[in-house]
Amino acid sequence: MEVAISAGGRLVAIAPLLFLFQLLPAFLQLPLVSGVDANDRDASTLLKLASENVKLGQYSEALENLNAAIDKKPEFSEAYQDRGHVLRQLCRFEESEKNYKRFLELKPGSSSVEKELSQLLQAQSAWDSASALYDSGDYSRALDHIEKVVLVFSPGCLKAKHLKVKLLLALKDYSSAISETGYILKEDDSDLEALLLRGRAYYYLADHEIAMRHYQKGLRLDPEHSELKKAYFGLKNLLKKTKSAEDNSERGKLRVSVEEYKAALAVDHNHLAHNVGLYLGLCKVLVKLGRGKDAISSCTEALEIDGELVEALVQRGEAKLLTEDWEGAVSDLKEASQKSPQDMNIREALMRAERSLKMSQRKDWYKILGISRTASIAEIKRAYKKLALQWHPDKNVDNREEAEAKFREIAAAYEVLGDEEKRVRYDRGEDVDEMGMGGGGAGFNPFGGGQPFTFHFEGGFPGGFGFNF
Fold it and tell me: pTM for the complete prediction?
């Protein structure tokens, strides 16, 4: 029933007012009643927030909420369990163990927490093993252990992620290192260690421009970061020396270029992707300088890095020609030609090497007569006269077989070099072994077959002598 009273000539309903008055004591007493549970409710809310943080991988935020929850309620056992879990994720193993043990003090016999404590000990053991193996240089085994930390026990452990990337770099798995640092930088693009490591991965892939960007970004965040400064200025120095070596080679300053190439190679012996080009460039310059042995060494270094580098095979073939390793030159140039069959320059070089090999396998008539390749016809005749008299079988009764062989070579040499047309063909590398006496071949034996051999001195020796069969 609603009651109305008159107020200044107006009727006012009093039932709603009475209802509110009856509720007033309850509102006044509410803080006194709920005050006992306020900390519980706040700590629980913080625990829920921490749980959401963990799901999102926000371990630092989760730790802050858990610390606040425990500050509000020091006996909050669930908060100790969760904080132990978060600390394990961050590889803060000793602190994590203390929190798990504190939970077990508050709630002894919890099998789930005892299991987590066991996982913690496994995580710490895996981390210790990975660190020790990394220091000893056993990178493959170290990577196996750090994978357990990162993927199983402590996926939020930043130092484990950094170590994993270092191991990938040491194993020359640069693409994986780039992927791993990408995940890290997605969470925190100001991670200096990740910027440094990612820059190194690009550096060792010879993607120097991108490597430089990472170093520069890190140095903008921390201009005094020693490792970033070392990497940045080391790369600048390498690029400077490389360009100087190439520029001097183009200008024809070959000896200066050689020293610049060597200086560039000394910057970082492990930078294989870049050094392969330096070794090849050095080899080319050494070939131009005629330093065949050094050029072979440099091109071999390039081929050890990249066995499919056709240009290195070609240049090493040219270098072997300089050292008169004819068979080696043919082998390298033939392999290069097989890898690049359409390259006419390589085919021409191969033909030149094959011709040199063939010439090396025939008798050197100039050497047999003891004359130079520029000797005049008169010098050829004088040399022949002297040697023919020296090795005539009639004058070498005690060593007739040796003398006959020598005399046969001397006569064959004169047959080729004493004839202008044959000499020209011989100098060009043509096969003249089947001409005339056969260049001392199987068909030429002035002392064999039982036929008489006569020496004619006509008009002075040796201008008019002959062999009769």
Answer: 0.71
**What CATH number matches the domain at 126-147+158-235, 3.20.20.70, 3.30.230.10, 3.40.50.300, 1.25.40.10?**
1.25.40.10
Mean of all residue pLDDT scores within the chain: 86
CA distance to 38, 81, 146, 164, per residue, from 41 (Å): 5, 18, 40, 41
Task: For the chain, give every residue range classified as CATH 1.10.287.110.
Answer: 365-469
Q: Determine the Cα–Cα distance for residues 170 and 443; give it in Å rounded to an integer.
A: 67
For residue 108, give Cα distances in angstroms to 40, 51, 111, 201.
21, 23, 9, 49
Range 269-361 classified under CATH 1.25.40.10: yes
Separation of alpha carbons 21 and 244, rounded Å: 94
- The single-letter code of the amino acid at 376 is S
| Tokens describing residue 167 | 């191991």
d(CA 363, CA 374): 17
CATH number, domain 41-116: 1.25.40.10
Q: What distances in angstroms separate CA 329 from CA 118, 146, 162, 342, one per listed residue?
A: 65, 49, 48, 19
Q: Which residues of 193-219 are buried (b: 16+ CB within 10 A; e: fewer)?
A: bbbbbbbbbbbbbebbeebbebbebbb
> Is residue 423 scored above 50 in pLDDT?
yes
DSSP letter, residue 394:
G
* Percent of residues, the chain, with pLDDT higher than 70: 83
Which structure tokens are listed for 312? Answer: 């290195």
- Per-residue pLDDT of 239-261, as tens digits, reads 999 999 999 999 999 999 999 99
Residue 404 in tokens: 């006959």
Q: Where in the chain is the domain with CATH 1.25.40.10?
A: 41-116, 126-147+158-235, 269-361
Mean of pLDDT values over 370-387? 93
**Considering the chain, what percentage of its residues have pLDDT values greater than 90?**
74
User: Burial code of 360-381, b = ≥16 C-beta within 10 A, e = fewer?
Assistant: eeeeebbebbebeeebeeeebb
Instruction: Please tell us whether the domain made up of 365-469 is placed in CATH 1.10.287.110.
Output: yes
